[in-house]
Amino acid sequence: MSASDSSSRRRAANRALARFALRDLRGGLRFYGVFIACLVLGVMAIVGVDATSRAFREGLAQQGAVLLGGDLAFGRALGVPAEKEKAFLAARGRVGEVLSLRAMARRADAPASTLVEMKAVDSSYPLAGAVRTDPPLGAGRPFYDALALKDGAYGLFADPALGARLNVKIGDRLEIGAVQFALVGWLAGEPDSIGAIGFGSHVIVSDRALAETGLIVPGSLARLSLRLLLPPEASSDADLAAAQKAFTEAFPESGFEIRSRAEPSPQLSRNVERFAQFLSLIGLTALVCGGVGVGNSIRGLIDRKRKTLAILKALGATGGEAARFVLIQAMLVAAASAVVGAALGLALPKLLAFVLGASLPFPLAPSLDWRDGLSGMVFGLLTALAFAAAPLDRARALPVTTLLRETALGDFGPLRLRGGVVAGLAAAALFGFALLISSDRILTAQFGAAVLVSFALLYGVARAIMYFARRAPHGRSLPLRLAVANLHKPGALTPSFLISLGLGVTLLTALTGVERNLRADIGESLPKESPSFFFFDIQAAQAASFHDFLRKEAPDGTIAVAPMLRGRIVKVNGVPAEDVKAADKARWALEGDRGITFSAKVPDGSRLVEGEWWPQNYAGPPLVSMESGVAQGLNLRLGDSVTVNVLGRTLTARIANLRKVNWRSFNINFVLVFSPNAFAGAPFTSLMTLNLPERPDSTREAALLAEAAKNFPAVASVSIRETLETVDGLLGKLSVAIQSAASLAFVVSALVLSGALAAGQRARIYEAVVLKVLGATRGRLLSALALEFALLGAATAAFGLLAGTAAAALVARQVLDTSFHFFPAQAGAVALGAVTFAVALGLAGTWRVLGEKPGRWLRED
Fold it and tell me: 3-state SS string over 529-573?
């Protein structure tokens, strides 16, 4: 036979197999239930996260001007007047001015006060977008008019949280500084507050009202923001870039941080991208875990179609042709499942926008992008091929006589070379594709390595359990003997159980361990010497009086004082801050204003790790001490220079030493500490902390804050207790989001185990029938099954707890740079949940075995 004849025969055979496979699928997909569910869920998770991330990026791009408050925003700490800059911008479009600061709001008729994030706006606000209020403003009424002076009080809009904190309602009077305000409405949405997370309620007042409060004096910790809205005929991206470039060239030393509508919040964008990537990896974990279910489903499919395969082989089909018959069916179903999963994932952003709407903390612009769906489908198909190859190749080698036996699956034997090669190539393609489309290839590579190691460990543990179960002594209890025998018999559930459920338990243990340690580190393990209160923006003329006030109100407390200014790092070794390649852990130091101080001695809570402190009366060129972690992230060493803009003026200092700072003590400390001569004659405010021997109860805390606000209205106060509660709430919301995504792994685990149980269902029924004939009762069989799944659940829980705890400890110590503590109660709950989950799911999947009548099966045999 010639080569062409052989090739024609193969093509004809493949066409015939394809027609036969399609005709066979017309009988229904009931044998593919787990297969379809695993792939649909995994693909949906990956595509949904990618589509939502893309919707967020497009939302930022489309609504950038609204989110920023203009086409361009120029921000810096309040200092020298910016009239020249404002006039320069006014020649290019509409200009608005916003001042932001923290202050204390107090009720006019009661001794209650709270910290507020105050925003003072001019008559142009908002340049872009609209402020949503409750109740809504009347049609055509300017927002600024509602802030005007009326009946002796200026108007004020506030976040609804202020109502709960001060027990106020619309129409009530509040005092901020030396001015009385009337609450005229609640803020339902601010166009320029994206990503704004503060420790106080947001309030908006007029610039005129702020001028009368007495809060703005030289050195005040306020931030100036100028917004520019270009005219419609000159608002292209090129015009935007030209305006930004012209401002930078005209005012190179102004110290303004410039943001454009193209990227209104770089930090928020990075955080959302990181979070989306993290969720994508969780989704990919679920998909890979579901791949085990795909393999089990193929085994179950071969079991149910073993007679069909035997007939094909008996009629002359080769083993390869019989395997291709099943492969064609499997890949057709996999393709359809991937399409369904991709469609559901692409619909997720629209669903989020419809259900959550305005409550989302970031904008979404849902759109259908074929790239998101295609990448998810590729992941699904490669996963299906990788996990289906091995069982298909094993079935390929089985003779007709073996396929006709009820226990065909138990005779599969070890992994064959051909199946291993195909599975390995598909897995490599899956990993390579993940690297290709990833925005962080290092993280993806680490994830791939972790999955590979986890699979190897789980499979090794499963084989070890089977080895020891095979050699375990035979006890007197029949259910226990049967349970132990089921752990190591041919076709045992042990590998599938360990791999699928083990990954889920490991993931959940790691996530909950990291979250629990974060909460403990921030709140529960707060050092005794940590301050109870922070008081900032204390003017120089009031510093001594306020110190005496604290000493009188809390004679048992310890007071710490430090001078404070606000400034921004504008250059590092002469390189503009926006051009510096900083590590992720240090990037925040280059964005926005930072607290800055000066000191003649090493601050408490710091220790020198490199260099020497300056002399007591140092009078040379400006020197600065930098926190060692930030310096490392910015690749700075002793002798390098840092340029900051403080109060509108630039100052360059040489790094004299590096400090290790214990931030978790919450004591006064700063990234940058300058030599005192650097700011000689500059106006500054004081920052004070009060540490009480015992944590104050809410009554004493409220009384102290109210008295401070009454006697020193310009001083802003922060309670550490309230701050930690706010942070804990944010961690709680993040934890819910992460654990909700991680729960997908458990859903997939349930599907995988269901597939494994279904794959071995016929063999289990056959064994149960034989045991019943030999006298076994339903109760004994039930006990044996319960013990089997309890043993598997216990082994899985033990591995998951060990591996998850190790992963959590690694993340806590290496990534979060914090201590790690083991929480037995949490570990016990996870272990108990895993065992319960295993027993419940195992019994639910094998309940049919107990009700089978021996007669029918014996007649069939």
Answer: CCCCEEEEEECHHHHHHHHHHHHHHCCCCEEEEEEEEEEEEEEEC
Integer-rounded Cα Rg, in Å, for the chain is 34
Coil/strand/helix, residue 243: helix
123 contacts: CB under 8 Å, gap ≥ 6: 142, 144
What's the per-residue H, E or C state across 19-54? HHHHHHHCCCCHHHHHHHHHHHHHHHHHHHHHHHHH
Non-local (6+) Cβ contacts of 640 within 8 A are 572, 573, 654, 655
DSSP assignment of 717-754: EEEHHHHHHHHHHHHHHHHHHHHHHHHHHHHHHHHHHH
**Cβ contact 750:841 at 8 Å:** yes
Can you tell me whether residue 825 is helix, strand or coil?
A: helix
Alpha-carbon span 729 to 815, nearest angstrom:
22
CA dihedral of residues 174, 176, 180, 183 (deg, nearest 10): -40
Q: How far apart are CA 110 and CA 812, in angstroms?
A: 45
The structure's pTM equals 0.70
Q: What DSSP assignment string belongs to 218-237?
A: TT---EEEEEEE--GGG-SH
Instruction: Say which DSSP state 643 is in.
Output: E
Look at the alpha carbons of 815, 820, 822, 825 in this order and tell me if their dihedral is positive or negative.
negative
**Are the C-beta atoms of 844 and 758 separated by less than 8 Å?**
no
Q: What is the mean pLDDT of residues 567-576?
A: 89
Quick check: 604 pLDDT over 50?
A: yes
Calculate the alpha carbon distances from 405 to 306, 312, 314 in Å. Answer: 9, 16, 15
CA angle, 130 as apex, 128 and 133 as ends, to 5°? 155
Q: Which residues on adjacent β-strands are paired with residue 654? A: 623, 641
Whether the Cβ atoms of residue 806 and residue 753 lie closer than 8 Å to each other: no
Nearest-angstrom CA–CA distance, 196 and 68? 11
260 three-class SS? strand
Q: What percent of the chain has pLDDT over 90?
A: 14
Residue by residue, DSSP assigns 146-197 as GGSEETTEEEEEE-HHHHHHHT--TT-EEEETTEEEEEEEEEEE-TT-TT--
Quote the percentage of the chain above a pLDDT of 70: 81
pLDDT tops 50 at residue 492: yes
CB atoms inside a 10 Å sphere around CB 549? 18
Residue 623 has pLDDT above 90, yes or no: yes
**From CA 816, how far away is CA 799, in angstroms rounded?**
24
Number of H helices, E strands in the chain: 25, 22
Tracing tokens 């064609």 back to the chain, one arrives at 328
Quick: pLDDT tens for 430-445.
Answer: 888 878 877 677 777 7
Mean pLDDT of 730-743: 64
> Residue 196 — pLDDT band, cuts 50, 70, 90?
low
Element (H, E) at 849: helix 824-851
Q: Are strands 716-719 and 72-77 parallel, antiparallel or unpaired?
A: unpaired
Dist. CA 860–CA 850, nearest whole Å: 18
Number of other residues whose CB lies within 10 A of the CB of residue 309: 24
Find how far residue 605's CA is from the centre of its chain: 31
Whether residue 666 is predicted with pLDDT greater than 80 in this model: the reply is: no
| Sign of the alpha-carbon dihedral angle for 200, 206, 212, 215 | positive
